[in-house]
Protein 1
Amino acid sequence: MSPRKHTKKTKPGKPTKGTQNFSPPSRVLITGGAGYVGSTLAGELLREGYGVTVLDSLKFGAQGLMPYFGDARFRFVKGDVRDSRAVKEALKDVSVVVHLAGIVGFPACRKDPKGSQDINVRGTKVVVDATPKNVPVLFASTGSSYGKMIEKFCTETTPLNPLSDYARQKAEAEDIVKRHKEFVIYRFATAFGVSPRMRLDLLPNDFTYRAVKDKTLIVYEKHFMRTFIHVRDMARAFIFAIKNYRRMRGEVYNVGSNDMNYSKEDICLIIKERVDYYLHFADVGHDLDQRDYMVSYDKIHGVGFAPSVSMHQGIEELIKMSEAIEIQNPHYNA
């Protein structure tokens, strides 16, 4: 099993003593707010009392936003982040931007490298250029940019070694966001869990769905390590940054948990504790996505944030979801 203990946990979401928090904004813009993370974040922000504006092209539909249209604090702008007019319209009365819009994941970016470059890099530039200088941009980057592990544990100062189009594009976008001056950049662990706009191209989600529906999993390179974070914890991390912006501004944070470093084998065996399925670890062959790294989350824990949803809890939810749905048009980004 992979190592788990690297730091003392801090109570989730509790600021350190003496912290001066950022005054909560009246309205938050979420670019890509109809997506996997955005649709979860929109609901969490509304529950916290924020106004929410979502800018989204609805490439993957609007179903994730359906519960929110009845809320008077919710505003929707249909548009592309590469369209400066749509971005400027969405920015009205906004005091924080959460930039999520983009083509997400290794398979989707490999399928259309030029198109994903245009959206993920140029789209970020359009959003940053249109955002007033005093309005913070909270950017969702990725731990994938660490690529093949060159140090035992990756920290925020570890040189990036992106192996995929997606990881390279996120690294380029980080540089654009940093030029805005008012920012927080989150390098997230691999997302998983149930969301209003579901994705099955994420490793735990994919493995769980296949185990439940196909009763078979063939897994290559079982020892490869990933770090994971539940989608609800991703949403909580953004709300934490909004509330604690003054002491987090201008910094990059790995976002995840030191207790959530798992190998592919670990994930399969957790699922197998709950689902009776055939599992085969293949000795020949390999995955095209060659990420293999463990990440330290000491920095984000040090300012008071720690995820609360464990892998075991998340897989329980995924099993229930997989048993309840039959997917004809799978929720894959690619």
Protein 2
Amino acid sequence: MKTWKALLAGILTVTMFGCSSKPAEEPAETPEESAETAPEETPAVTPAASEPTYTDGLYEGYLGTVMPTAWFDFTVTNAKLAKEYEGHEAPDGYDILIVDMDLKNTFGHSVPMFYNDFQAQWFDDADDAYAFPFSMKFGGETIDEDGEYALGINENAKAVYAFEVPAGNKDFSISMQEYYEDESYGDLFFVYFTVK
């Protein structure tokens, strides 16, 4: 089975603003690869929900984990599946994944944000086992697909993302990749959860 991280390395196109000259990093190892190369004396540790794990440019967490990007923190606070979202009906064979997120600017000026900064993934061997949102709200306002919005200095904001996902899936992740003005990539972030 392809891992979400390997799949994301080939398909993630995010347009995050950045002002660092941080060099691009190689895609992170999969958990299976890390287990094979980790020293035997290092025990596996399951982090608390509020503390992400970090390994070689990869942050991983769960619902409620604060994920610290170069410009802002984001926290996936809730996720649910539905057949309809604000008048948009799921196509046959699909559900709508609705994800609530908290955002907090941790940078020294307003941070431009974009509609497709985050994407959803699910467990699947297909090359297209991911989706960008079809609907996005920031601070209660709907943002158009080509829209840009600003997260002000020290601002806390709520965001809601809606994705079309194949029906029958319950395990998902939300991901984000830092992308800098010099076209290099920074850290990669995954938040994993099961929708009941």
Protein 3
Amino acid sequence: MPALMLKLLWSSLLIVFSLQVVAQTNQRDSLRAIRKPTSVRIGTDLIAIGKTIAQQPLQSWEISADVDLGRYYPILELGKWSREAELTNGLYNNEGQYFRVGVDINFLLKDPDKNMVFIGMRYGRAQYSERVAYAVTPELFPALQLTSSNPNAAAGWVELTSGLRVKVWSGLWMGYTARMKFLPHTKNTPDFDSYDIPGYGLPFKGLYWGFNYQVFWRIPFKKIP
């Protein structure tokens, strides 16, 4: 129950914060046409790197790139993921790669440093293999070790995002992305329902929450005379 209350509180805070930002934004700016691209930012998730260095059961890395079109920032995120989890009577592991594609909408359009407070949306897609090894103890017989696998599993999902990007120095940026993930769907999983989806998490939990703390480097495009 406390976990559910925390999720509902976090969801409410995201919605209230987003509505406040929208209300404070000049309406003419919100209708401004998309500009020509001025830069690209390339970054990575520091939390994923930290978990990999600490040799957690989850090993992953993720890179992302977004393009500055004024208010709109199309974004592509690519990652690789492997996980091992102990079950009641066995061991589960998976490995695969994923991508997310979407757009962020910046509500600080007039900021000369191009800092961002944004909301956005993503569609995610994963390709992975998964395997579970478990023990069965029939009556009057020794324990049996069995395995099941989905070697060519695939999954998709949708995300709503909210976050912050702040210029730290020159082309260096830092920020975070909070994710509300939902509508997971899988295919090519004949042996068992997927326990864990790379880039998503545990699909049987319904709404799933994610958080990235990111560092970026901004590369400006040359102006054409």
